[in-house]
Amino acid sequence: xxxxxxxxxxxxxxxxxxxxxxxxxxxxxxxxxxxxxxxxxxxxxxxxxxxxxxxxxxxxxxxxxxxxxxxxxxxxxxxxxxxxxxxxxxxxxxxxxxxxxxxxxxxxxxxxxxxxxxxxxxxxxxxxxxxxxxxxxxxxxxxxxxxxxxxxxxxxxxxxxxxxxxxxxxxxxxxxxxxxxxxxxxxxxxxxxxxxxxxxxxxxxxxxxxxxxxxxxxxxxxxxxxxxxxxxxxxxxxxxxxxxxxxxxxxxxxxxxxxxxxxxxxxxxxxxxxxxxxxxxxxxxxxxxxxxxxxxxxxxxxxxxxxxxxxxxxxxxxxxxxxxxxxxxxxxxxxxxxxxxxxxxxxxxxxxxxxxxxxxxxxxxxxxxxxxxxxxxxxxxxxxxxxxxxxxxxxxxxxxxxxxxxxxxxxxxxxxxxxxxxxxxxxxxxxxxxxxxxxxxxxxxxxxxxxxxxxxxxxxxxxxxxxxxxxxxxxxxxxxxxx
Length: 483
Known about the structure:
Blueprint: H1 3-23, E1 28-35, E2 40-47, E3 58-60, E4 75-82, E5 85-87, E6 89-93, E7 96-99, E8 105-111, E9 126-128, E10 131-135, H2 136-139, E11 152-157, E12 163-166, E13 175-178, E14 185-189, E15 193-199, E16 202-208, H3 216-234, E17 243-247, E18 258-263, E19 266-271, H4 277-293, E20 303-304, H5 308-325, H6 331-346, H7 360-381, H8 388-400, E21 406-407, H9 408-416, H10 421-426, H11 435-441, E22 443-448, E23 451-456, H12 462-470, H13 475-482
Parallel strand pairs: 1-11, 16-17, 17-19, 20-21
Antiparallel strand pairs: 1-2, 2-8, 3-7, 4-5, 4-8, 6-7, 9-10, 10-14, 11-13, 12-14, 15-16, 18-19, 22-23
Helix pairs in contact: 3-4, 4-5, 5-7, 6-7, 7-11, 8-9
């Protein structure tokens, strides 16, 4: 294909994507007026004429997120209307209403002032001072249709001088088309500094507000190198327009505290800064490594079933490996984190299988260990030629390219192949005894009381050296030399 025809082909593809984006049907239309003075949102909306919700009498809102279990109490002054005008309703509980007949439009006020629990700042809508974050899933009603994702056309009115940024819109517009209300996040504020970073796989929007010890340029460089590295390992995201928002807490917090969430194509990091610049840079890189991974897993695929152990475990593990690869942490730091995870998991009582419903905090330690053991299995079986990155890429390609939802557990089993790691530590509740697995990797585990210590073997075989290189062991010397 000639340069001319390639150029025209890309233009045609781009126009098709734009047209598809613009003409995508919306089930909901709404106007949102944000008030910084009252820290509230006035919302007026209606259903599309041809859209029929599954529950046409139930008008309700999300009840809880991390850090805020009283979301329903924020909703007041509700007015519901049907095709012939206003209709009566009963309030069943805070944030849940039952209409006397089918509603088609609504009006209400939402209190979006920050709550005292700082963990809510990265998970629910708030406005404070001259900035805020809007999670449409808790601000708009929970409209349920035949599809799980509800789309919306929104007009948003902000205080004078404020701007909005979202992976759903261009930065210059105050209205946007949202493909999935559940997955949409909007950064709003007066001092947001937007930078469009062009990586190997396309643009990423970085939206910074507030003052930090790291510069905007340093933050942008981190985003680019991490996004490019994950694209190299996992493959490009499909139909993606990712954005990253970094902002301070709505109220003063002690140094070192932070919360984050990756929802849809949006990464949100709400944080206080560190005391020193090197600490600030190091912590930001760590935050970005973990959250950007979630753009691929689970957000870049649509897998069925509960597999939080997999995407949380590999988010932690791949963040560590990438940190070593990019010379942000030492190999000793990599081993120390695994050691601490082993000590935490060994103390768990009673022991439960990793798969299934569990509190998020409970799965992290063993999920990290399982990701490492899966990696060591692959490295051993392939003599260091492949690692868990190859596994993740296979799973991502199959899931992202499938026209139907695939069961996550089945796909993971198929792509991993025969291994006892899943049966023993994910679906079983055995203590993680990794002495055999560590032997072929070239790592030694010792115990001191209840503490696990990992170190590199004094004598290494050629194969062990090759495997350790895949884990980033050579980068240890590079870091020490720079110092």
